[in-house]
Amino acid sequence: MYLRLTGKGNKDATMPLSEPVLRALLAAASDRTTGPVVLTKRGTAQNRRSADGRCKIPVKRAGLPAGTHPHPMRHATITAALDAGAPLRDVQIFARHSDPRITTRHDAMAGAGAAKTWTGTPRTR
What we know:
Layout: E1 2-6, E2 12-16, H1 19-29, H2 48-61, H3 70-83, H4 88-95, H5 100-111, H6 114-119
Antiparallel strand pairs: 1-2
C-alpha cells in the first residue's frame, strides 16, 4: 500500500506504508476521504506546532529528554535505518530526500555523536 501526499515545497510524493501505519492513518481519517489526514482537537489541519504538542506525551512515556521534537525523532529514524543496513535508496525514499547525499549526511552526523543524543543507545561503529 502506498500513500500519495503533498510534502514540503508542495512536492508530490508517494510513500510506502506498513500495515500498522495504514491502520493508524485510516483510524485518524475516520470517514473522511479528502482533506488533511490528521486533525487537531479543533478539527483543523495539523501543523508543525500541533505536531510538536502531540509528541509531548509519547516522548515522556518513552523516557526521552524533555524538549524532544519530531524532527530529531525523524533524524534518529533515518540514522537507525542506515545503521541497520537498510539500502540507502530505500532510506532516501522514506525520508523524501531529493539527493542521496542529504541522506548520507544523517549517517555522518550520527558518527559525531548525534544519534546517541536521541536514540539513547551507543553507536556500534
